[in-house]
Amino acid sequence: MDIQTRKRDILIALIPIVVLILQQVVIITLLGADALAGASQVALIASGGVAVAISILYYRTPWAKFEDAISASVHKVSSALIILLMIGALSSTWVLSGIVPYLIYLGVQAINPDFFLATACGICALVSLMTGSSWTTIATIGLALMGIGEALGMPRGMVAGAIISGAYFGDKISPMSETTVLASSLAGVPLFTHIRYMLVTTIPSIGLTLLIFLFLGFGKHTAVGADIEMFRTALAAHFHFTPWLLIVPLLTAIMIARKTPAQIVLFLSTLMAGLVAVVAQPEILSSVTGSTVSNARSIFLGLMQCIYGSTAYETGNATIDALVATRGMSGMLNTIYLILSAMCFGGCLTASGMLGHLTHAFTRFVHHRTGIVSSTVASAIMLNTIVADQYLTIILTSSIFKASYDREGFEGRLLSRTVEDAGTVTSPIIPWNSCGMTQAAVLNTPTLTYLPFAFFNIISPLMSIAVAIIGFKIYKTARQK
Questions:
Q1: Which region holds residue 464: left if phi is over 0, alpha if psi is between -120 and 50, else beta?
Q2: pLDDT tens column, 37-94
Q3: What CA–CA distance (Å, rounded) separates 91 from 72?
Q4: Other CB atoms closer than 10 Å to residue 435's CB: what's the count?
Q5: Cα Rg for the chain, rounded, in angstroms?
Q6: How far apart, in whole angstroms, are the C-alpha atoms of residue 393 and residue 383?
Q7: Residue among 87, 181, 142, 191 at smallest CA distance from 450
Q8: What are phi and psi of 61, to 5 degrees?
Q9: Helix (H) or strand (E) holding 376
Q10: Are 436 and 447 contacting, i.e. CB atoms less than 8 angstroms apart?
Q11: Cα separation of 400 and 429, whole Å?
């Protein structure tokens, strides 16, 4: 193939991408965080349609080839879709059983004014790790911490940076996080293998972040004990707290450590949390159905609704109400819709040969480990800036670079980790990204105000490149050794 033909093919392959970007600009501008409710999915399908039309008319590609490619793409993420549904059920049962509220209850007790920033980061990391959702963490305990930070006289940007740093630590590394499941699935890496490998870059990143916040926050002595105790009292008034609740996360951790398959871990953990909810919080299960009487029927219906649907529990405290509101399996449907739409888009690009042209353009000069990791990081940040959505960034970056990692013999977990190091964590520090807009609105703090203090989000992609330069725990597959 001559150079002119290759350039022409690359330009043609860029047309569906440009169409997608233009649609995303309009969608994000008009809808903001609501873009994921359906508009972004429609944009993906429409852009896939553009790729199909060009390929059929220009390259004479048969339609059957697109059907096969789309089926193959969807098949790759079929297990991830089941995992996402189980995550929805697990996160809900962990909340309404009192497990997550109890962990928060214990965590906020540790707040010391001298170490407030580091503690706020640590609490958000713990909550996000347990729930798998940075958005939920920021919108609930994050708001409470912003209030405490304001009482301390801390700069809003500094407090928001600590909250976002901790929340995205959990979003990145939690087995209940949608982005964690998505990145591992697209790279073809088992979920817990992916998580364990991320520890190599994530632990140093959060460690440095906590050290910085310890230095920045030390010396603040405004009393906040009353605020903390008020929050703990409100939690304890509505949930039956007992150390026995910790058995579920303990057994879950043991299963994860024993490398039990993710689907089994999620199912058993959901089952245990459901049983705990029935025993420890029967009144809450009854109340989410609207029943004023706690009996076997209302408890059963409450548990089922907790697992499959949205629930709300009125406590009279807005922060706690937001914390214990759950989405269940139904809360994952927009993400599943997005993944299916993205797989259709990717299948269309693959069948048309456009993905191959784009991959060649992006990666033809990338060979050694530092170059390939650096290029992945740069591309993920660029896509987060252009398409303004972390899910699309993860999908597109994984699709573009997977063949290069395979060709060079690097393990799939290096790709999945690098995509998360750059794609997941940089999304909230870009003002027009759906994550950046959402967190700025929730915390009432402009993105550019908290950006300099979102240390974990800044350090993570740099740590990914640094580990690649060192070559620590970066291996090639057996056939490449």
A1: alpha
A2: 788 889 989 999 999 999 998 888 899 999 998 888 788 778 778 877 887 888 888 8
A3: 30
A4: 27
A5: 23
A6: 5
A7: 142
A8: -75, 130
A9: helix 369-386
A10: yes
A11: 23
Residues of the chain above pLDDT 70, percent = 92
Burial (CB count within 10 angstroms: exposed 0-12, middle 13-18, buried 19+), residue 147? middle
Distance of alpha carbon 451 from alpha carbon 429, whole angstroms: 6
Residue 467 and residue 200 in contact, taking contact as beta carbons nearer than 8 Å: yes
Residue type for 142, please? Answer: G
Q: How many CA atoms lie within 13 A of 103 on its CB side?
A: 26
Q: 200-203: long-range contacts (C-beta < 8 A, 24 or more apart)?
A: 200/417, 200/467, 200/472, 200/473, 201/417, 201/421, 201/460, 201/463, 201/464, 201/467, 202/169, 202/172, 202/173, 202/421, 202/460
Instruction: Find, among 134, 139, 141, the residue nearest to 180 by Cα.
Output: 134
What values do phi and psi take at 409, rounded to 5? 80, 15
CB under 8 Å to 1, separation ≥6 — which residues?
Answer: 9
d(CA 347, CA 454): 36
481 pLDDT above the threshold of 50: no
- Give the integer Cα–Cα distance in Å for 277 and 89: 13
Per-residue model confidence (pLDDT) at position 3: 65
The answer to whether 77 and 189 have CB atoms below 8 angstroms apart is no
Tens-place pLDDT, residues 84-108 = 788 788 888 888 898 888 877 886 6
Alpha-helix runs per DSSP H in 132-261: 134-139, 141-152, 156-173, 178-186, 191-217, 225-238, 247-257
Answer whether 112's CB lies under 8 Å from 119's CB. yes
Contact of 125 with 206, CB cutoff 8 Å:
yes
What secondary structure does DSSP assign to 234-284, as a single string? HHHHHS---GGGGHHHHHHHHHHHTT--HHHHHHHHHHHHHHHHHHH-HHH
Its pTM surpasses 0.90: no
Q: What are phi and psi of 430, to 5 degrees?
A: -110, 115
Q: Report the distance separating Cα 460 and Cα 28, nearest Å.
A: 26
